[in-house]
Amino acid sequence: MQQMACIQSKKLESTVYFPLQGFTAVDLGYQQGNALSNIVNKFSGTMMTEGYLRLFEQIWSDREKLEDVTAEVCDHISSIYSENSPERIYFVMLYNIFTEFLEDITEDVMPNDRTGYQESVIWNKLFNFQRDAAVGIINKLETYNGCILADSVGLGKTFTALAVIKYYELRNKSVLVLCPKKLADNWLTYNHNLKTNLFAADRLNYDVLNHTDLQRTSGYSHGTPLKQINWGNYDLVVIDESHNFRNHTPGEEERESRYERLMNQVIRTGVKTKVLMLSATPVNNRFSDLRNQLALAYEGESQNLSSKLKTRNSVEEIFRQAQAAFTRWSKLPAEERTPEAILKALDFEFFELLDSVTIARSRKHIEAHYDTAEIGTFPERRLPLSFRPPLTDRTDVHNFDAIYEQLTLLELAVYTPAEYILASRRSKYDESYRDDLEGISRNVSLAGQQRGIRALMTVNLLKRLESSVQAFRLTLRRLPQRRVHQSGGAAMSIDLSRLEHVRHSGGKVIARCPACAEGDHDSKGEHLFIMGDGCFGCVLYSGDAGKKHRRRILELAGDAASRLRGDLIVRVRRPSHMTLERMPGKIVNLGCLGRVVTDPPPPSEKKETKGEEEAETGIPGEMDTLPDGSDGYN
Q: Are 340 and 299 in contact (CB under 8 A)?
């Protein structure tokens, strides 16, 4: 109904003003306004006003449409002019600021106190800021299915995560902790009955696996058989040092990467999986590092997160704009490249996204917003002191710069064989190198890569000098020996034409293991690895147990010409400076790699055993020692 004003008087005739836009002085015509026109009609006389008055009385008397609010208005006016405490005013302000946020909060996304998590040992060990983080993490996990805890180093991310784990275990959820191998003992302490377990009474029962276990299909990890793990049955996955999963380029490798295995086998498969990521440095070089980690929470489908955020743009677009703003900021002059400048350059949606799925606090934040009487003050970080002492007090000795200049003069030809390829054949090797890098974005040539390796080895020589003069001296003596050794006839005697599923990847050859193929295994061709230096091995057979398996590989796929030459000895060996216990992890996983070398036997050696006779014919026997007295692994 349009507004109108009816005026009744005993002395004057009734008058109606219609229509009215409001009851201000401008609307009533007492003052001039900005409107181009404001027409109000005046009706006088009983005949003209009776209809309007009857309509007004009809509405005014209808209690279903109108009610008398005179008392409420008077009370409101009284409260406005009454004295209110500052506390009440503060609470009213908070309510009006966060009213929309409070409407979104439901019991479904907040920790359920009836689980008893607040009575657990771990919960009562937490400081106030850690408890706030645990509650916030649970809320974000229930709302957005994922969260990144990016508190600074030393603020207790592990204990906070343990409190979250305990909450979900009380809800009968299955929890997996993925961590680097070097941190596994730390997590294993709290789920075992050990004297060093501060939370033994909580009986935490989560599983612990290493990041590298995602690419393993056999063997054991911390007592767990990897072949039998039900990867899709974890309700919560806690990823320690989650920045290790910051890179994801689909199709970069022929084999499924750790990131893809985690996404496909753990998160997307089976039960709905929530992801808690722990990292003090979630962003390394680009904002895409953070985006790739968050993708684990929304299963790689950004609309799953965008639908829950009140943003106009998609997650990908928000990160693209943020990266573009950061790039522009990084190109500003130093005096303009300030924290305030980058904060102004970033869009509000970026901060809203971060607030929704991340918790990141520094020591300064804790000191400013929490009572630190319980924990005390944080230690002050002192400025680093730089000392540049001379190499020696002697004046007749070169300094570091002069020594480095001399080291750069070394050819180190063993690391740059591409420089000695005939010009007519160079294109063939370059083409082969590009084929090995298919699907990988690399803008470096074969010769350029090898020059980089040479530069790296030059720096390593200088580091040997920093270690000790004697270490530097020994390394220089070994360089000529290494050159002679590597050019002295090490020859791979695996005939690639006799293998199945052969493919080149990163300087090595991957193929179907012929020994495994006899039992109809390795149908995908992932067991046999042949390195560029002639080392080979099967991923399923390691150490001494793999000797017979590797000999069988040679029997099935060995180079026939090298096996028929009677002046050659075939050995399975590893670098002489390594023991089985100190082998690099990559070599151990391949299983004590075999190498074929062609050293002629000593003239005075006699054939005394069957094994020696087989060795001299180039066919490996079942012997434990070789004619030169070695065990085949020197």
A: no
What gap in Å lies between CA 488 and CA 302, rounded to an integer? 56
* Alpha carbons 148 and 237: distance in angstroms, whole number: 12
Pairing of β 15-20 and β 3-7: antiparallel
Q: Which helix (H) or strand (E) element contains residue 278?
A: strand 274-278
Residue 147 pairs in a beta bridge with 276
What residue spans of 145-175 are helical by DSSP H? Answer: 157-170
Q: How far is residue 49's CA from residue 51's CA, in Å, rounded to a whole number? A: 6
Per-residue pLDDT band for 211 (boundaries 50, 70, 90) equals very high
Checking if the pLDDT of 215 tops 70, the result is: yes
**Mean pLDDT computed over every residue of the chain:** 78
Using DSSP, state whether 558 is helix, strand or coil: strand
For residue 231, the Cα-to-chain-centroid distance in whole angstroms is 19
**Domain locations along the chain:** 3-67, 109-301, 400-486, 496-616
Classify residue 453 as exposed, middle or buried by CB count within 10 Å of its CB (0-12, 13-18, 19+).
middle
32 forms bridges with which residues in the sheet?
none
Give the pLDDT confidence of 119-172 residue by residue, as tens digits: 999 999 999 999 999 999 998 998 888 999 999 988 999 999 999 999 999 999
- What is the rounded distance in angstroms from the CA atom of residue 19 to the CA atom of residue 39? 8
What's the Cα-to-Cα distance from 147 to each of 63, 161, 237, 332, rounded to whole Å?
53, 11, 11, 33
Angle 617-621-624 from CA coordinates, rounded to 5°: 125
Residue 199 contacts residue 186 (beta carbons within 8 Å): no
In terms of Cα–Cα distance, which of 437, 421, 482 is closest to 457? 482
Residue 217 CA to residue 475 CA, distance in Å, equals 39
* Range scoring the smallest mean pLDDT among 29-38, 66-75, 298-307: 29-38
Q: From CA 244, how far away is CA 252, in angstroms rounded?
A: 16
- With 0-12 / 13-18 / 19 or more C-beta atoms within 10 angstroms meaning exposed / middle / buried, residue 622 is exposed
Highest-scoring range by mean pLDDT, 94-103, 107-116, 194-203, 294-303:
194-203
Q: Looking at the whole model, is its pTM more than 0.85?
A: no
Question: Three-class SS of residue 20?
Answer: strand
pLDDT digits (tens, 9 = 90+) for 233-283: 999 999 999 998 888 765 445 567 888 889 888 998 899 999 999 998 888
Hunting for tokens 């002059």 — which residue is that?
333
Residue that the structure tokens 């699907």 belong to = 439
- What pLDDT does residue 529 have? 85
**Which pLDDT does position 443 carry in this prediction?**
57
User: Which of the four pLDDT bands, split at 50, 70 and 90, describes residue 533?
Assistant: low
Cα 463 to Cα 526: distance, rounded to the nearest angstrom: 37
Contact criterion met (CB below 8 Å) for 527 and 539: yes
Q: Is 264 exposed, middle or buried (0-12, 13-18, 19+ CB in 10 A)?
A: middle
Task: Check if the beta carbon of residue 199 is closer than 8 Å to that of residue 189.
Answer: no
Q: How would residue 440 be classed by pLDDT, with cut points 50, 70 and 90?
A: very low
Q: Respond yes or no on whether the N-terminal peptide bond of residue 19 is cis (omega within 30° of 0).
A: yes
- Cα–Cα distance between 1 and 62 in angstroms, integer? 14
Residue reference for tokens 């309509």: 55
Give SS3 for 196.
coil
Q: Assess whether pLDDT exceeds 50 at residue 361.
A: yes
Write down the residue that tokens 């409260």 correspond to: 79
Class of domain 109-301: alpha beta
Half-sphere exposure of 430 (CA within 13 A, CB side): 13
